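Example 9 (inverse folding). The structure is encoded as follows.
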């Protein structure tokens, strides 16, 4: 896609981590960026810094998401770029044993359902709403109207113990990509997903330094955590390169996660 000042984007989860890096990369290329997040303070600060706009959006709520799209489009016009990084989920083993009591319990259906709404359903919600708007745009070069990038995870292919919800639902995000790309091919809308490995995002940086050292050493090369700006760089390339379509792309330094 040709990038110039006429292109606008929406980035969910844009107030921090991978979403923030994506918003920065797109804005640096000249794209007008609307940030969707629940963290108003951080989101507004970033929007002010990059010349974008902030919209408080709860990805679990259809009403909130639709209002966010309406607000962003009123500000910057119909987006041609959608980057979905926001998520919500819970962790737990399918069946676990309490080491003190010996009692067995399972990861509840309710917790799995919540995770599904926060990962898989939200990905479809955000992507399909964006696609509906993009489909009405005038086409650019190659008859392209837009590009959607979803965030999966390396866990989609090698989830660890305790990631039954996260791993299976991120695999579901990957599963959305090809049928959605084919659904949208006649409208000139591309769809891809990125599977980040272990990245230096705020939640990860909260773990003890010794754990971070072990994680960094487990990456074949380079032996460090991924930098959010490396994710942002790939997001920008997926916008630029119109032959990326229907792809699930790992960005992980060649790591393959062990069971635990």
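The amino acid assigned to each position is listed next.
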């Amino acid at each position: 896609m040709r990038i110039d000042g006429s292109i606008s984007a929406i980035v969910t989860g844009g107030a921090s981590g991978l979403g923030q890096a994506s918003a920065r990369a797109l804005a640096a290329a000249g794209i007008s960026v609307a940030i969707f997040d629940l963290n108003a303070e951080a989101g507004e600060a970033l929007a002010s810094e990059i010349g974008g706009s902030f919209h408080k959006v709860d990805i679990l709520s259809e009403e909130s998401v639709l209002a966010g799209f309406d607000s962003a489009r009123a500000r910057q016009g119909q987006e041609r770029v959608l980057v979905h990084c926001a998520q919500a989920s819970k962790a737990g083993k399918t069946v676990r044993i309490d080491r003190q009591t010996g009692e067995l319990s399972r990861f509840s259906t309710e917790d799995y359902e919540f995770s599904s709404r926060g990962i898989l359903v939200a990905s479809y919600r955000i992507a399909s709403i964006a696609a509906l708007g993009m489909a009405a745009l005038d086409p650019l070069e190659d008859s392209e109207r837009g590009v959607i990038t979803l965030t999966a995870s390396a866990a989609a292919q090698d989830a660890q113990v305790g990631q039954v919800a996260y791993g299976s639902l991120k695999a579901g995000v990957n599963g959305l990509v090809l049928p959605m790309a084919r659904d949208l091919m006649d409208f000139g809308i591309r769809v891809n997903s990125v599977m980040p490995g272990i990245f230096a995002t705020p939640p990860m940086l909260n773990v003890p330094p010794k754990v971070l050292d072990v994680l960094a050493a487990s990456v074949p090369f380079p032996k460090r955590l991924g930098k959010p700006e490396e994710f942002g760089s790939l997001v920008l390339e997926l916008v630029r390169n119109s032959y990326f379509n229907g792809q699930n792309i790992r960005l992980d330094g060649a790591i393959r996660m062990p069971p635990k």
